[in-house]
Specification:
Elements lengths: L4 H11 L14 H16 L1 H4 L5 H10 L11 H12 L10 H20 L5
Length: 123
């Protein structure tokens, strides 16, 4: 079997001591690769930094539907109602609709809708 150009290139680099046998990373060793990838991975995990606050009108509508906010309440009451929802669900009660809050609010909203649609009860 005749070696390919890539195989010959790798053999020459191995002989020169530039890469270890079987290494696909080459001179960008595992430590350097991790130092490049780790910040992006940490940013992806930190949903609060990546997910912008959703439409305030949508959050308000969900709070009204699950019974956390009075429909006649002024728009500025949304933060207070959201903080109360966060407190009741074990989240930091800062009144900001971050990723975790929106996820729990959406879950509560879906459960409330299902209860109403099935006729089992009200929220």
């Amino acid at each position: 079997m005749v070696p390919t150009a890539l195989q010959l290139h790798r053999r020459r680099r191995q002989a020169a001591g530039r890469i270890s046998a079987g290494s696909a990373i080459g001179r960008f060793g595992p430590r350097r690769l991790l130092s490049a990838v780790l910040p992006a991975l940490q940013a992806a995990i930190d949903a609060r930094g990546l997910v912008p606050e959703p439409d305030p009108g949508r959050v308000r509508a969900m709070l009204i539907e699950i019974g956390e906010l009075d429909p006649a309440a002024p728009p500025q009451e949304r933060r207070r109602a959201l903080a109360a929802f966060q407190r009741a669900n074990g989240l930091p009660d800062d009144g900001v609709a971050d990723g975790r809050t929106v996820s729990m609010l959406s879950r509560a909203w879906r459960e409330c809708r299902e209860l109403r649609e099935t006729g089992i009860g009200d929220c």
